[in-house]
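Final report, section 2: Outcomes. Of the targets proposed, Gamma-glutamylcyclotransferase is the one most frequently requested by collaborating groups, and we therefore present its record in full.
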Amino acid sequence: VWIFGYGSLVWRPGFEFTSRKVGFIRGYSRRFWQGDTFHRGSERMPGRVVTLLEDCGACTWGVAYEVRGEQIPASLQYLNMREAVLGGYDTKLVKFHPQETDAEEPILALVYIATPQNPSYLGPASEEDIAAQIIVSSGCAGHNIEYLLRLADFMRYFCPQAEDKHLFSIEEALVSILPCLYHTEESVEET
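The predicted structure is given below as tokens.
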């Protein structure tokens, strides 16, 4: 079984797997439209995490994990709790295209997608509003800022050829709100 991750699963799958491949799926855009009241936010201050929006001309980059044998029930049970029960995500099968140039045919992969029907769905907002919400949100897995920055770093380092204007616009809005955060990090690295 292959499982496609496009949010925190790209850096923290949380389950055992046999192999992993960077690549993309077609027909979806990644959006920070899902609320999170557990991992990256609270009931009082929901965080913003990503979901997929059907978009016929788009593609979303991420990581596909291959799970085999006893890994299958353990990973699906873990993901059902993490994504479906706590996150409000549904599952779909998608065609995953590995990044390697000599890659075989697309791989059928399971993906978790939050739909507008789930109670935590927040929907669209301006990049500035999303960044402002991310700045004030934190949950049991850490601060919502970490989620945004790790996802942006993944895209920069593993998929430099791919565009994700939504993601990078939110990161840019966050930097404009919190410029001292980045200037402090740069001066620490220089010393």
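The radius of gyration is 17 Å.
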